[in-house]
Amino acid sequence: MRGNGPIRVTFLFTTLEVGGAERVGCELVRRLDRKKFQPSVVCLKHLGPFGTELAASGAVHVTAGLKRSRYDPFAGQRLAEALRSLRPHVLCMFGSGGDRSFWGRLAAAWVGVPVRVCCPHSMGNYEPWEPYNRLLSSLTDCFVAISERHRQYLIREAHLPASKVVVIENGVDIERFSPGVRTSGSEPAGPVRVGLVAALRPEKNVAMLLRVAKRLRETGVPAQFVIVGDGPERTRLHRLAKEAALEECVQFLGFRADVAELYRTLDIVVLTSRFEVLPCSLMEAMASGLPVVATNVGAVADLVEDGKTGFLTPPNDVDAFSSRLAQLIQDESLRQRMGRQARKRIESRFTVERMTKRFERLFEDLLDRRTASTG
After folding, report:
1. Are strands 142-145 and 165-167 parallel, antiparallel or unpaired?
2. What SS3 state is found at 368?
3. Distance between CA atoms of 355 and 363, rounded to whole angstroms?
4. What are phi and psi of 136, to 5 degrees?
5. Do residue 25 and residue 163 come from a single domain?
6. Neighbours of 8 (CB within 10 A)
7. Is 141 domain-assigned?
8. Fewer CB atoms inside 10 A, N or C side of the chain?
9. Looking at the structure, do residues 255 and 220 belong to the same domain, yes or no?
10. What digits encode the pLDDT tens for the residues 160-210?
11. Helix ranges (DSSP H) in 226-329
12. How far apart are CA 81 and CA 66, in angstroms?
């Protein structure tokens, strides 16, 4: 089944737009040991910025455009043809978007891909494909959860078989995201800088941060808020900030490619999401030695230790969020202590090297198991 060459692994994404799951997936593709693995990438829809970057590198075969409309009935056929050409030993369906898992498993079963792995990066948000995907559990060798709370959710709420769900935590590059001397953007005597890094989509609830900023200004707690990211909510958020007269204390920086350097200009990182799984922005911030304040949704509590590496508050609770953030803004020693603990937390469990090694072992074990079962 395998031969003596490297294990061919095809990673299937819906698209590689800018997002946490997509960023993690691309890191995994880049870091697989090329002596043991030969990765390729397929995007059902368009490439997106991360996909374009991978294709331009020339190091990985990239295919896109197999699903040409929302209800394209021929997407599975085109994907099957792509898999016949790539001949993977393993198909790894990665990220959010239920269409990827649906078409991926059908096509893989059709052409006989030996091992099929699903990495569903969703939790708490309803997927219209979910009822159909439940029917395809028998066509899946393994589901990868990215934290223990995520594993429990997949078993209890998504009704996946417990015997097939394993945990591999997401990882961050701790060399790229590391504590450093504060660079441009804020002097020690200036206001504390509070950053939010996220796609400006409704589920990120960035409007809540604007309410928090207004509350702190009214109570005399000085801070500068920096919002990094772009998305469909951008125009509305700019309008809300203007209506609340927050132009002087809230900056919208848009998409930034230099986010690792940007963290070094911040003092605190926040996240106000309505639902999440294991947010990459918080991992990056903690690796950069920053304390965080976040809503306690999804599996965030598997990452942030409340009171030790940051604070967790109920979702959409402006009072609680404002209180905890004010506490950090007004206590520099607390910020420093939590920032050090945050860095240690990432180093112990959430590095990209640890994640990659565990995926490599998983692919090898599943393929060896499949080979043994087929004689």
Report:
1. parallel
2. helix
3. 12
4. -105, 15
5. yes
6. 17
7. yes
8. C
9. yes
10. 899 999 999 999 999 999 997 654 444 455 899 999 999 999 999 999 999
11. 234-243, 259-263, 280-287, 318-329
12. 10
- Number of structural domains (the chain) is 2
pLDDT one-digit tens code per residue, 202-216: 999 999 999 999 999
Q: What is the pTM of this model?
A: 0.90
The region, left, alpha or beta by phi > 0 then psi within -120 to 50, assigned to residue 330 is alpha
The answer to the question of residue 179 being in a domain is: no
Quick one: 136 and 224 in the same domain?
A: no
pLDDT digits (tens, 9 = 90+) for 234-263: 999 999 999 999 999 999 999 998 999 999
In a domain, 72, yes or no: yes
Residues 208 and 339 in one domain: yes
* CATH code: domain of residue 21: 3.40.50.2000
Q: Which residue has the tokens 């074990």?
A: 365
Decide if 47 contacts 80 (C-beta within 8 A): no
Q: Decide if pLDDT at 126 tops 70.
A: no
CB 151 within 8 A of CB 165: yes
22 and 59 in a common domain: yes
- CA-wise closest residue to 72 among 45, 51, 93: 45
Dihedral pair phi/psi, residue 131, rounded to 5°: -60, -35
Question: Where in the sequence is the domain holding 356, given as residue range(s)?
Answer: 7-171+351-373
